[in-house]
Amino acid sequence: MYAVIMAGGSGTRFWPLSRRERPKQFLAIGTDDPLLRETVDRLDPLIPPDKVYVVAGQRHAQAIRALLPELPADHLLVEPCPRNTAPCVGLAAAHLARRDPKAVMAVLPADHHIGDGPAYRAVLAAAAERARAGEIVTLGIRPTRPETGYGYIRYDRTDPVVADNGIEVCRVERFVEKPPLEVARKYLTSNRYLWNSGMFFFTAERILADIKRFMPHLHRTLTAIGSTIGRDDYPAVLAEGFAGLKSVSIDYGVMEHATADVDLPPMRVVPADFGWNDVGHWAALADFAEADRDGNVVAGDAVLVDTRDCIVHAARGTAAVVGCAGLVVVATDDAVLVCPRDRAQDVRRVVDRLKRDEREELL
Amino acid sequence: MYAVIMAGGSGTRFWPLSRRERPKQFLAIGTDDPLLRETVDRLDPLIPPDKVYVVAGQRHAQAIRALLPELPADHLLVEPCPRNTAPCVGLAAAHLARRDPKAVMAVLPADHHIGDGPAYRAVLAAAAERARAGEIVTLGIRPTRPETGYGYIRYDRTDPVVADNGIEVCRVERFVEKPPLEVARKYLTSNRYLWNSGMFFFTAERILADIKRFMPHLHRTLTAIGSTIGRDDYPAVLAEGFAGLKSVSIDYGVMEHATADVDLPPMRVVPADFGWNDVGHWAALADFAEADRDGNVVAGDAVLVDTRDCIVHAARGTAAVVGCAGLVVVATDDAVLVCPRDRAQDVRRVVDRLKRDEREELL
Question: How many alpha carbons lie under 13 Å from residue A231 in its C-beta half-sphere?
């Protein structure tokens, strides 16, 4: 079993801490270590570091090598340009298929927080068991709120397959796009929907077969790239191949079609509950990071007077907050951010403004 | 006519911009130049720089010489230790009396904002006229709100003395301590009270006579100090003399008594209206600094998204504020402050905390 960690993200919602050169996966936010480092560490011992692959852009290759010094040199797969998750997963599958077509790939985002490591590894083991049998398995998170920012998975709770470790694996009925609030409320109370965590499990040969079926152009490109692995012309073929690909997510490009295709084995989901958080914006820290008795989540040097329910992150200097409630306050070397917790999604609007004004030094 | 600018303040309510070494009078807050620099500049041409004296602590002597290079060397009077305004005024009077006992002193705080310079100078000219006649004159600001943070002056609007420039000078009935809110409301509607601006006018001989009458110990000390001016033993006599003084304000030590003393000439006040602001805390900037169309007062590099009525001062880096209203946000080299405008008075609590924790580098 191999882990394929997708570390190509370039999230903007943790500005000013996150920058182009240092996106979320390289930051310790509400955690002790950077999220990518924690992602690798929590897989051990189920997946030791020498079975980990990381896919990322050239821009971040050096930072990844510094953060994960134990990663074998040829386990860092560099995407010449970002093309969303289908090409990313396909590239990793092409590499793994040369080593072992039956290798189980656990495809994992680099920048999520998981509260309960042992529960997480147990779920991974159960998912891998079904993947080894040729099925595609995803992890679905039990919803705790009517979230409109995630995709959902409708699943069949009856007649689950039980893995060796006792964990139930269910059948996916279908993948659902991000719903409006009223619909999300119904999903929440129905108990028939899970959040799509973006974690997938399959063998290299299975995902390549499905890519061939549903994304034939991508498959031809991957075949061309795969045939040059280890050769001098690999970088050129990779660059040319990726440049000609469309940006498509693995969910949209493969999973949705594969779920609907009766000729394929059933799509599976493990309903999971291991303290998952996608760390989508500053306010998310309140969901998992430790708060003081006034509900403040603090990192760095802070002086709080009459202040509650704030998220204060002082990467540089001292952050003093007086008489505030429910604010996000972030201080870095060259910038400060202040916004209410319930506006944390709108931090991207600051980044948009900086892009418009070509403030490259702040991006 | 001489100006005596009292620059010994060490205000804490502009932290993190203000520090022990750089209190408010050295900062440009809501203004183009530091407040002390503006205080000197707005006196010209009524009082040219060579008629200006500045009284301050040793800690700030160098900064004052740098900020006011045109100040004659012997016009910077250094207090060996802070003893409030009565000793400060007395020291200046002792110096001026040696030069000219009938010299009119305009005693002025270093750190106030004045919106209308010509109106201000006209009021000063009127006050000086009465001071030259041996009276003590103060400037009273017409109240615009039931402020509880200032002292008040009750005055007699009937039968004013009219100065050469047509400005009316009234008689003070009494000085009043900072009132509770209900009382301040009554003062506001009564039209019989003015805010005590802390600006006074008198001849050197008149104020020394009143100090002798009401603060004999201070007078003896000043006489001893005055006799050594220009001699080598001046610093030692000054230091020993000041160390033995109590901290007393000129209002409390002299003005209140002089007003009540029927043997003395009447105490005068010029009711004034020249855009006065004592710049007491960050929120005060909203009263006089220019705001953008959303009511934000901005200094430095700021990115404001959906934000109104905020005071944003970025002395270093970029301050981004998203979805906020009525906040103060200050960013400096080593600290950030966030507080609601109506809590700006409580910034001193941050400074208190820093003192308690011996965070000398932030004080």
Answer: 11
Q: What pTM was estimated for this model as a whole?
A: 0.91
For A138-185, what is each residue's pLDDT tens digit? 999 999 999 999 999 999 999 999 999 999 999 999 999 999 999 999
The amino acid that residue B49 corresponds to is: P
Region of A140 (left: φ > 0; alpha: ψ -120 to 50; beta: rest) is beta
Among chain A, residues having any CB pair with chain B shorter than 8 Å are: 15-16, 303, 305-306, 314, 316-324, 327, 329, 331-340, 343, 346-347, 349-350, 353-354, 359, 362
Confidence of residue B11 (pLDDT cuts 50, 70, 90): confident
Question: Which chain A residues are Cβ-neighbours of B329 within 8 angstroms?
Answer: 336, 338
Other beta carbons within 10 Å of A252: 16
Determine whether the interchain pair B350/A317 forms a contact, defined as Cβ–Cβ distance below 8 Å.
Answer: no
- Write out the residues of chain B at the interface with chain A, using a CB-CB cutoff of 8 A: 15-16, 303, 305-306, 314, 316-324, 327, 329, 331-340, 343, 346-347, 349-350, 353-354, 359, 362
- CA nearest to B313 within chain A: A336
* Class of domain A2-277 (CATH, top level): alpha beta
> For A316, how many CA atoms within 13 A lie in the half-sphere containing its CB?
15
Q: How far apart are CA A227 and CA A233, in angstroms?
A: 10
Distance CA B26, CA B35 (A): 6
**Closest chain B residue to the Cα of A339, Cα to Cα:** B322
The rounded distance, in Å, linking the Cα atoms of B354 and B135 is 45
pLDDT (tens digit, 9 = 90+) per residue, B293-320?
999 999 999 999 999 999 999 999 999 9
Q: Which pLDDT score is estimated for B305?
A: 98
The pLDDT, as a whole number, for residue A12 is 84
Q: Which residues of chain A have pLDDT under 70?
A: none
- Determine, for residues A305 and B346 on separate chains, whether the beta-carbon distance falls below 8 Å: yes
pLDDT in tens, B15-43: 999 999 999 999 999 899 999 999 999 99
User: pLDDT tens digit string along A284-341?
Assistant: 999 999 999 999 999 999 999 999 999 999 999 999 999 999 999 999 999 999 999 9
How far is residue A208's CA from residue A293's CA, in Å, rounded to a whole number? 51
Q: Closest by alpha carbon to B16, among A180, A147, A316?
A: A316
Sign of CA dihedral A324, B308, B142, B206: positive
| B272/A218 Cα distance (integer angstroms) | 80
Position B178: which residue type?
K
Is-contact B97 B91, C-beta < 8 A?
Answer: no
pLDDT for B184: 97
- Per-domain residue ranges of chain A: 2-277, 282-362
Nearest to B339 among A16, A317, A323 (CB): A323
Q: Which chain A residues are Cβ-neighbours of B338 within 8 angstroms? A: 319-322, 324, 327, 329, 338
Q: Which residues of A touch B15 (CB under 8 A)?
A: 320
Q: Where are the beta strands (DSSP E) in A7-146?
A: 52-57, 76-79, 104-109, 113-114, 136-141
Please, which residues have CB within 8 angstroms of residue A304's CB and are 6 or more apart in sequence?
Answer: A292, A294, A296, A298, A310, A312, A320, A321
Residue A45: how many other CB atoms lie within 10 Å: 6
Residues of A in contact with B319 (CB under 8 A): 335-336, 338
- Which residue of A318, A328, A347 to mutate against B (max B Cβ within 10 Å)? A318
